[in-house]
Amino acid sequence: MLGAFFPTRHDRRLIPQARLTGPMPWVIAVMLFLTLLAAAAALALGSAADQINADLAGRATVQIVNADSDARQRQASAAEAVLRSDRAVAVVTRVSDAEVRSLLSPWLGSSALSDDIPLPSLIDVDFRRNASDATLGRLRDALAEAAPDARIDAHGQWLRPVFELIGTLRWLAIALVVLLALASIASVMLSARSSFAAHAETIDIMHLLGSTHQQIARLFQRRIALDAALGALIACLLAAPVLWLLGRAATRLDSGLVSAGSFGPFDWLLLATVPIAGIALAVVTARMTVLGALRKKL
Amino acid sequence: MDSIVQFENVGLRYGTGPEALSDLSFTLFSGQFYFLTGPSGAGKSSLLRLLYLAQRPSRGMIRLFDSDLVTLSRDRMPGFRRRIGVVFQDFRLVPHLSAFDNIALPLRIAGMRDADLATPVREILDWVGLSARGDALPATLSGGEQQRVAIARAVITRPDILVADEPTGNVDPEMAVKLLRLFEALNRMGTTIIVATHDIHLMTRIKRAQMMRLEGGRLFDPTGALRYPPKPSDLRGWEEDKG
Ligand SMILES: Nc1ncnc2c1ncn2[C@@H]1O[C@H](COP(=O)(O)OP(=O)(O)OP(=O)(O)O)[C@@H](O)[C@H]1O
Ligand SMILES: [Mg+2]
């Protein structure tokens, strides 16, 4: 198994190559660094979307606006009853007038908030699960009958454009990961082909001395494995502090509204597979390229 | 006597050119010593290339080790090649490997460990008179020295067949005779030997050798290999191409 990665001293002499000064480790390092960033972005956007969903999509506010305080109270009670009787609703909380007043005071000034300024009645609703459009429609209909001045706002709906943006960005990040993988495959293929061409005479001799295609492919795949491992190491060393700083910045962003996506252990595990997958991809690509070129020989 | 190589109506054409080899039908027997002669361009190297599986014939049938080469699967080719030692006309040493490593290459390909191959490689280096030059790169060796490395590499595995293309072209007569004795020793141990050469003096050295002569891609004696010493008629045309 390890033999697939470590060329023997003799192999290194057979297919010599300028170590480190060659461009391959650096190309792989840059590719993997960018892949790590894109993958991290995809993961962070995914967890941010989940968080916002959990925080907001399961909640709604019912607002009753009527200048007549008695009518408002009556409608509020009726609305509360409607909401409590619905199976999709978990918790219904009437926001007291005092709370509404304190919420509004920063904008209106406490002196203006006397009893003669009509305030809306607010009812917070927590759904058992994220409320579907059908659920919201049903509640809207029921409320229209019981409390004509009630308006229901699902929190998730305000944020739909934000959601869509996050979703688009996430797909973009995933597409970047795929594109980077394709570009890496292409550059490994080019490098394997040119290395194969540079050593055509040696390969020809080995072939005539009875080397199997597997033996020859192994020479190249070991070389590229070392290059790729070196590139992966460089990429990880570059990416780790960058990701750590970004993660910290995201945690600071943490507002009352949303707790922004930060990486859990599973996310770190997924990120750790990126360099490993990169090395494996490089080795398999080099192997396939060389075997393909050898197939033209007798 | 067991046949080891059989050609039947073999023809070889490079690309769209004329046939370099035509209507070759002959049998080589196991344990024999063959010389292949003929003027330059007669097709000696081409015939040897067919023998060491560097080339497929354009037509005809070749049997090697009792297998039909035309239908032989690719997976089995490396195994066949390992049973054939080759001294290439242009040596074909790996330029960045030392003389020692070039000679060890067939053993390494066969999977022998470094610890086990040092002794046989030193032994054969000694045989070809290069024990002091084991670490030298091919570029730093003279033509004759390179040729001896190429011969050492071809015989190190004690192959079933040894194919040598002008193996003594670059060495002095004394060394040529010495190398020929190496071939003879190998032959006595059972290796079938096929040597392409212009050197008639070399041919007279091996009394039991047989001679095949190519001219313009055809066997001079279509019935097959000739017995040495050849009759005067067999050597007709020899004088023209010896220069
Ligand atoms: N790779 C090739 N492509 C095209 N033609 C070739 C090739 N190799 C050989 N030939 C042609 O085949 C013919 C036989 O060549 P070959 O090398 O077999 O001759 P030879 O008997 O070994 O000659 P020499 O004694 O000079 O080594 C020649 O006419 C040569 O031009
Ligand atoms: Mg020739």
Automatic annotation (TrEMBL), chain A:
Keywords: Cell cycle, Cell division, Cell membrane, Membrane, Transmembrane, Transmembrane helix. InterPro entries: ABC3_permease_C, FtsX. One of its GO terms (biological process) is cell division. It is a multi-pass membrane protein. Pfam families: FtsX. It is found in: Cell membrane. The chain crosses the membrane at residues 169-190, 224-246, 266-294. Residues 175-295 form the ABC3 transporter permease C-terminal domain. Its main location: membrane. This is Cell division protein.
From TrEMBL, chain B:
Residues 5-240 form the ABC transporter domain. It is a peripheral membrane protein. It comes from the Bacteria. Keywords: ATP-binding, Cell cycle, Cell division, Cell membrane, Membrane, Nucleotide-binding, Transport. One of its GO terms (biological process) is cell division. The keyword Electron transport does not apply. Residues 233-243 have a biased composition (Basic and acidic residues). PROSITE patterns: ABC_TRANSPORTER_1, ABC_TRANSPORTER_2. GO terms for molecular function: ATP binding. Residues 223-243 are annotated as: Disordered. It is found in: Cell inner membrane; Cell membrane. Part of the ABC transporter FtsEX involved in cellular division. Important for assembly or stability of the septal ring. Belongs to the ABC transporter superfamily. Homodimer. Forms a membrane-associated complex with FtsX. This is Cell division ATP-binding protein FtsE. The lineage of its organism: Bacteria, Pseudomonadati, Pseudomonadota, Alphaproteobacteria, Sphingomonadales.
